[in-house]
Amino acid sequence: EDPFTLWNLGPIRYKTIGENYRKIIGEKGKLNIDINVVNRMNNDYPYKKQRGIELYELMNYASKYTDNIIIYGLNTIEEDDMYFAPYTRVSDVKF
C-alpha cells in the first residue's frame, strides 16, 4: 500500500514503508508495493498525476526498498511514460 497520507514525503517514503514492512514479514518474505498513478486533489505538484521524471523517481525508490512494484492506474498512466520504465532500476516491467 502506498497511502496518500505519506505522499508529502516524496519518493523517500518507500524507504520508510519498506523498512517498516520488513520488520513484520522478515527478510525472506516478498514485499510488493503499488504506486498509485491517480489524479491528485491538490495543486502542489507540477502535474495533476505522477508522470515523467516524477514517476520514474517513484519507481526507482520503490524498487530499491521492495522486491516488486505494481503500477496502479485507471486510464491515468501515459503510454510514453512507460517507455523509460525499464531504466528506473526496476527488475521486471510487464506491460
What does this structure look like?
There is one protein chain. This protein has helices at residues 13-25, 52-65, and strands spanning 32-36, 68-72. With 95 residues, it is of the alpha+beta class. It has one domain (4-87). A two-stranded parallel sheet has the order 1-2. Helix 2 links the parallel strand 1 (32-36) and strand 2 (68-72).
Major β-sheet, in short?
Answer: 2 strands, parallel
Give helix and strand order, one letter per element, not per position. HEHE
C-alpha geometry: globular
Mean pLDDT: 85
Euclidean distance between termini CA atoms: 21 Å
Strand content: 5-15%
Helix content: 25-40%
Question: What is the count of DSSP helices, taking H or I runs of 4+ residues?
Answer: 2
Question: What is the rounded Rg?
Answer: 13 Å
* Number of β-strand runs: 2
